[in-house]
């Protein structure tokens, strides 16, 4: 994805889109360093901007601008109507998965938009949160605790108590894998969530006995 986004400067698109996707390219280059929420946010933002770009290019094409804009100048056979399998590193497995989503050609990938989208700009105070709904809210770390699961030797559980001026809520995150059970990993997470640190949290609210 990092390499593909860098090649967008070969397309006839505005400097604004080049700037946006250049920033995405840098983030994908450090994808392994991102946590789960940061990865989801990056993928959603990328899809949203690819969708907007696709619509923009469709409008330009309707104004008699050539529809044969190539994704790679070195390969003039690759166009928006090319089969998705012609993209570098898209093998049979990925092709089948993309086909299941209704993506058969490169233009389908650009126009693809996820069926579910969490609006992170719709922020709610903690006191107004309701169970079984998706929300985004802003608060400060009040308490932090991470521990190893007693039932699953590969699982670590992190709990953060986040509060705003209205109330508090416990945020739980699960880490599956032995590498997340090391003392150094626990220390790295503790350094990220120091009491008083401001956080933006998103997810489904669940009501528990605690």
From TrEMBL:
Q: InterPro entries in the record, alphabetically?
A: NA-bd_OB-fold, RecG/Mfd, RecG_wedge
Which SUPFAM superfamilies did the record assign? Nucleic acid-binding proteins
Q: Which UniProt keywords apply?
A: ATP-binding, Helicase, Hydrolase, Nucleotide-binding
GO BP term, pick one = DNA repair
UniProt domain RecG wedge: residue ranges: 83-175
What is a GO molecular function of this protein? hydrolase activity
Pfam families in alphabetical order: RecG_wedge
Q: Can you say what this protein is called?
A: RecG wedge domain-containing protein
Q: Which organism is it from?
A: marine metagenome
């Amino acid at each position: 994805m990092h390499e593909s986004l860098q090649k967008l400067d070969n397309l006839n698109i505005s400097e604004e889109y080049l700037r946006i996707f250049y920033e995405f390219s840098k983030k994908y280059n450090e994808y392994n360093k991102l946590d789960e929420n940061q990865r989801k946010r990056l993928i959603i933002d990328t899809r949203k901007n690819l969708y907007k770009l696709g619509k923009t290019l469709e409008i330009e094409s309707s104004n008699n601008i050539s529809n044969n804009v190539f994704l790679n100048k070195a390969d003039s056979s690759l166009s928006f109507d090319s089969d998705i399998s012609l993209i570098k590193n898209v093998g049979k497995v990925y092709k089948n998965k993309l086909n299941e989503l209704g993506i058969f050609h490169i233009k389908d990938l650009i126009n693809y938009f996820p069926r579910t989208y969490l609006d992170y700009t719709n922020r709610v105070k903690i006191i107004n949160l309701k169970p079984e709904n998706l929300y985004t809210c802003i608060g400060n770390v009040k308490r932090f605790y991470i521990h190893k699961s007693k039932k699953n030797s590969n699982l670590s559980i992190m709990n953060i108590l986040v509060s705003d001026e209205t109330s508090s809520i416990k945020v739980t995150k699960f880490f599956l894998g032995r590498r997340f059970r090391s003392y150094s990993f626990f220390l790295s997470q503790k350094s990220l969530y120091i009491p008083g640190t401001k956080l933006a949290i998103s997810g489904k609210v669940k009501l528990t006995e605690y």
